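Escalated from tier 1: S-adenosylmethionine holo job.
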Amino acid sequence: MLMQPPDPVAAPSAPGKHSSFDFVAHAPVLDALAGAGCVLGLGCGRGDWSLALARRGTPVLAVDRWVEGLAWLRAQAHGLPLLAVRADLTAPLPLADGSIDGVLLALVLHHLAGAGRAASVLAQIARALRPGGVLAIVEFLPVPPPPGPPLAVRLSPADVLALAAGAGLAGGPPVPVADHVGLYVQRKSA
Ligand SMILES: C[S@@+](CC[C@H](N)C(=O)[O-])C[C@H]1O[C@@H](n2cnc3c(N)ncnc32)[C@H](O)[C@@H]1O
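Tier 2 regenerated the structure:
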């Protein structure tokens, strides 16, 4: 049987990992960052949120350490104001103080907390945000699965708000955006 040569223009298939974009309500998350000048998508995974923001005309710097996810994202992002960069979020962000308008941290904070790095990463985010800038945190609520990760790794709203406050960010309690998932919109004081 003849083998088909690889199609040079075909995009890679979507990486198999789940994206919160598949089950989280889009409008509350995207609207929280609407109008922001430049958004950081930290722990972007395969980048569905970053693509949605870029398609709205918002410049996005998408960051993750997952090589295949970033490759998929770059293949989708032609012509969009989106840069996908491989980096470890626990390293200092090489961004000037106050240079970013918005940040999206979707289902990433519990990973950082598990590594004992949540407070230091949020401090970096707060430093890079401009006064009045927004951090949108999408996180599992402390409800027994399924769906989602084990209860033991989930953060309570009190934990999330205390971490944000510790970094100098303030905002309201979580708004439900899916089963067991909340959106926390936090701002740096103007
Ligand atoms: C559950 S996935 C969420 C992906 C995407 N934000 C979403 O909502 O679908 C968590 C992502 O965080 C990334 N991540 C976790 N810790 C990281 C770190 N220290 N540096 C870079 N990326 C990290 C993982 O590679 C993964 O893509």
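Residues 1-12 have pLDDT under 50 and may be disordered.
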